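Forwarding these from the shared drive since the link keeps breaking.
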Amino acid sequence: MSDKESRLTGAERAAVLLMSLGEDSAAAMMKHLGPKEVQLLGQAMTSVQNVTKEKVSTVMEEFVSTVTHHTSLGIGNTEYIRSVLVKALGEDKAGSVIDRILMGGNSRGLEQLKWLDGKTVAEMLRLEHPQIISIVLSYLDADHAAEVLLELPERMRHDVLMRVATLEGIQPAALKELDEIMERQFSGKQRIKSSSIGGPQAAANILNVLDSNVEAPLMEHITKADAELGERIQELMFTFPDLIAVDDRGIQALLREISNDVLVLALKGADDELKNKFLKNLSRRASEMLQDDLEARGPVRISEVEQAHKEILAVAKRMADDGQISLGGGGDEFI
């Protein structure tokens, strides 16, 4: 495999695979994906160009190799899943993952919010109590929740985020009622089985996605209202320089999931230690090419660099949630 092919992101490899299967098969597979996966794959499909037979063959071989190492046992028992996750992640971390798995599989009203843009969700929630809004934001993915938060009136943001950070869970009956309220605006009915959402980590995840000019005043307000909570959230926030704590195997896995253009932007202005961390985990040729790209790249906007940081951090956190990598330090909270 060439350096260029080896740098295909996971989404790009999936896009190549789906496009090679034909429209009907690709459509059938995408029906089983969530909104974020559909969006990511759609973007990858539009960006992948000049796909050679060799590239398709490489992707297909990789897919077949991966599939042959897995078996289909038909295991769907909740207790089995719970036992496996507890052994892998520990009781505390597994609890949150299990709750989200169960809630995602049994909640249509809240789940359908994930398919809506931030502005639409904010409009649906604008007349709700801040506590209701905080529960919904805790349920959404961090980047989606951040979009919704930005659409809320500025005077509400700190109150809502404070409630997210201090949310210690919600009674199943109350969550069921909230789900039914959301569901009435869509269709169908389901029931809620779990309620472990919210907390300082949820607030930290949302803040991580926001631009620094929005994040800073929110963080300042929370710290003024509750210094201990503010310190806890700050500890849980994972920033781009914190990737220095990720081991080499984790960096290598991360590099396979991000594009070269995003990496070049992200490393502009980074300190030498962090640059070397990425460079040493590339092949010699890829490392030389990256250094050339960094030297050839002219001045870039700080906002572009920050956006690249956020994209890489989003991938890193997703991989940490999936158990593929371990984020050092405060990152332990993500796996």
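-- next protein --
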Amino acid sequence: MPLIRPLAGLCPAANRAAEVAAPPYDVLDSNEARQRAAGKPWSFLHISKPEIDLAPDTDPYDPSVYAKGKENFDRMLKEGVLQQDPAPYYYLYRLIMGSHQQVGLVAAARVSDYDSNRIRKHEFTRPDKEDDRVRQIDSLSAQTGPVFLTYKHSAVIDALVAQAISATPDMDITADTGVRHTLWRVTDAAQIDLITRTFDAMDCLYIADGHHRSAAASRVAAARQAANPQHSGEEAYNYFLSVIFPDNQMQILDYNRVIKDLNGHTPDSFLAAVGQAFTVEKTGGQCKPGKAGEFGMYLQGQWYRLTIKAELIPQNDPVKRLDVSLLQDNLIAPLLGINDPRRDKRIDFVGGIRGLSELERRVNSGEMAVAFALHATSMAQLMAVADAGEVMPPKSTWFEPKLADGLVSHLLD
């Protein structure tokens, strides 16, 4: 069985994509989703965040939520808002945000290659979030949230993509965020075969975003295989919905930190302590790090540039060399007493898409005491961690632009 294969996607009917497309389920909370879906009966948020159609105090993990999602899903199928394509295709998915653009391949990726680490991971998952995705997939018998994958770019795929996207697209919408989402179906049998063979010759793929979705797909596949005496390996549940982008088109933004207090330090004693591991310089305005090993710090209305001392950078550990690790290991843990940033409520994380002004706002409001701006993790660093079989610290990468939910789903029946 190949690493990837085409799928008969479930897509919005002609001219309905703008009504259906929605932000990914995990970038909005329930209240935000309720507001975004107001007056939009066909928004995919009614499937991906169905608690918005129940009482506001409903637990988003309550069984009634998954039942409501199934009801909404079935309604959109019955009304013809969503329609399954007549044959398995690949799809090319272009995202344009400002001057940045990237083109990925929508495909079904093989679960067994995820299980064997040919589709490589770089994050831990949380059991509660995995359980949520398992229940969502099982209730719909479909995968509606694509896993964001990447590969080491290929001239063969680049040429095929350039040719395909010169045609008239099948869907072309601009979201309210300003991001343009464009989709082309790849229906030619020879092109489909070439794509399948080219990807199957690759050593591996890498998960950029979607560790919980891929882990849930693996669990669903294992359960369905165990319950199917006629299991052949060809069933749809053996594959998971993915969008696969070349590494040289990916855009990772900084993922910044804000912290509630100085752990008993005064501002002066804190600055003195920071100077043990970093050079500290005042700046005249916002400090956006320009290179690895450099950090911006906002404290009491003043920005500082911090530069990690060279002797503190490990040479042969792809995880410990990451800027998120250098800041955690040399400042956040020893000085601020936050040893488990995954669970400690004194720390919060701010995606780089919000800009440094959001860090200033959080500190100036008194909600937080200090903020740190980081240099973005690189794709090379992400791949090195995954290749080493290691995992990154939490909140190491923030990918932009985000994929839309609802443009292509993968039915498991």
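The chain has a mean pLDDT of 96. The radius of gyration is 22 Å.

- D.
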